[in-house]
Amino acid sequence: MTGTHANMGPAAIAWRRFRRHRLALASGLVLLGLSVLAAAAPLVGMLLGTAPDAVDLFSRFAPPSAAHPLGTDELGRDVLVRLLYGGRVSLLVGITAALAAAVFGTAVGLLAGYHGGRLDALLMRLTDSVISLPLLPLLIVLAAVDPGKLGLPEGVAESESLSLYRIVVIVALVGWTTVARLVRATALSLRERDFVLAAIAQGAGAARVMLVHILPNLASPIIVATTLSVGNVILLESVLSFLGLGIQPPVPSWGNLLTNAQELIWTVPGLALYPGALIFVTVIAFNFLGDGLQDAMASRPSDG
Questions:
Q1: Burial of 172 by CB count in 10 Å (0-12 exposed, 13-18 middle, 19+ buried)?
Q2: Is the distance from CB of 71 to CB of 79 less than 8 angstroms?
Q3: With contact defined as beta carbons under 8 Å apart, do 139 and 236 qualify?
Q4: I need a labelling partner for 233 at 20 to 30 A (CA). Which of 58, 187, 240, 242 fits?
Q5: What are phi and psi of 78, to 5 degrees?
Q6: Hey, what domains does the chain have and what are their CATH numbers?
C-alpha cells in the first residue's frame, strides 16, 4: 500500500474505491432522487391540489397537463401523485423487510459461527431447510392467509395497513438465510483472530465478545447483503401485489398500480409503463449499489 493510502482511514479508502464504480455511484444518486421524490409526495400532491385517492370521474384518462403531469387513471386520479405515494410504500417495505431479515440473519449467523458445535449444526440445518423451500409459492400461501381467521381483532384485521405489515413480516421470515450464512462464515474466521482470543483471555463473556469484538467486523458483509436484498424484496412485493396478494388498495404500491393497469395496457400503456419502469430501475439500482459496496468494502492488500 502506498504512503498516501496508508494515511487514509478504512472509510476513506472504501469511499475512494466506491467512487471508481461509476454504475454504483450513479445508482446511489438515482435511489437518493427516488427517495426524495417519494418523501415529497404529500408536498407534490398539495402543489397539484390533489390526493392519491381523489376520484374525479370527469377527468378519466386525461392526458398529461400542468394539473396532471403524467395524466390520470381510470378513476381520474393523478398518476404522478399515486406513483410517488406508491414509491413510499414499496421502498418502505423493501428497506424495512431487508433490515428485519438482516437483524434476524445476523443473530443466527453470529450464534452459529461463534459457538460452533451442535448449535452451529442445528442453526445451519434450520437455514438449509428455509433455503430449500420454494420461495414464491410459500410467499403466495402465507400472503393468502385470511388475517381474520388468525384471531386478530377485527379492527386490526380490516386495517388498510395490515397488508403492508404482513408483507414485511413474511419476507423477513424467509429472507434472512443469505445474511446468516455470510455472517456465520465470517464469524468462524474472526473467532480465531488474536484480538478475540485476547478478549477471551481477559475474561470477556461470550455475549461481550460477539457484540463488541466480532459484530463490528461483520459490518461489510451485512451491509452488502442487505443492500442487495432490498431490490429482491421490492420485486417480491411487486409480484405479490400483481397477483392481488400484496399491498391492498386503496394503499398504492408500484405492484398494485401495475396490477390495476394490466387490463388497460393496450389502451393506456402509460399506466403500466410508469410503475413497471420504476420497479425495474429501482431493483437494478439496488443491485448495482450492492455490487459497488461489495467492491469498496472488500479486503485487499493494496488499493492499486
A1: buried
A2: yes
A3: yes
A4: 187
A5: -65, 125
A6: 31-59+67-297 (1.10.3720.10)
